[in-house]
Amino acid sequence: MLRREAMNIGDAWLAARQVVDRLDARLLVEHVAACRHADLITDPRRALSADQFASLDALVRRRAGGEPLAYLLGCAPFHGLDFLVTPDVLIPRPETELLVELALERLQSLPGASVLDLGTGCGAVAVSIGHRCPAALVTAVDLSPAALAVASRNASRHAVDARFLAGDWYAPLGNDRFHLIAANPPYVAHGDPHLLHDGLPFEPQMALTDGVAGGDGLACIRIIVGGAAAHLVPGGWLLIEHGYDQAARVRHLLHREAFSEVASWPDLSGIERVSGGRRPSAG
Questions:
Q1: Which CATH class is domain 86-278?
Q2: Which of 72, 117, 179, 242 could form a cystine bridge with 113, CB 3.0-4.6 A?
Q3: Predicted TM-score of the model (pTM)
C-alpha cells in the first residue's frame, strides 16, 4: 500500500496520510520509528529500516480496514494515564472518565475505603481510582481471564495495588462489602446497528452488549443493581455507566431496590451517562 520509496520518516508520513487520517498516520509513524512529532518536523530524512517500513505498511493497511488505532498502538489514554490495550479488552472512552470523577468525589472523605470495579476490562476505572486514591482497597472483577491479565499489567504499570478476580459480576466476592461499587457494564442492545461501525466489530462483543436477543441492553445493569445492596456497606454508593437513552430506566431500577440519593450525571456532551444511588444507612 505504501511506496517503497518512502524509506524516511517524512516521506512515510506523507505516504501514510494519503491512505488514513493525518493524525493516525503521524502516530503510526512515530510508533514504528520510535520518534516524536518534533522529529517528523525537524529531521524528516531520518531513515526507516526495511523492517520498520514493512511494519508501518501493515499497520496502515489494518487502520484503513477499520481496526481501531488503540489496538495498533497497543495503548490508549484515560484520565491522564496511558493504558495498555489489546483486542481482549474494550478501548477506554473519554466519557467513562465521568464514572471515575464521581467515584473520586465520594471517596474524598473515606480514606482507606474499599472499592469494587465490576467488568474492569483493561482496568481503566480501577487503576485510575487506585492511582488517585492510593489508600483505597481496590478490587476488580471481570469474566474474561485475558482481560484481567491486561488489567493486572496496567496496575503494575501505574504502581497500583489492586485485587483482580475472575467471575461473573458478584460471584467471586463471597460476602465482601464495599464503600463504593463502580461499573461500566455492556449496555448496547443486541443487534444495535451501532455495533457494526466505528471499529466496534474489532472490540470484544461481550464487553459491549449483553447478547440478549430482542433485549433492551439492560440485562447486566439489572444484575448489578439487584445484587449491589448485598455487597455495599450501609451508606455505600453504586455508580453505573449506561447508554445515552437509559438514564431514566436505570434510575427506576435503583429506586425499586430502595437506593437513596438516586441521580444521573451528564458527560461533557450533556448526555446523562452515569446514574447511581446510595444504600440506606439502615437496613
A1: alpha beta
A2: 179
A3: 0.93
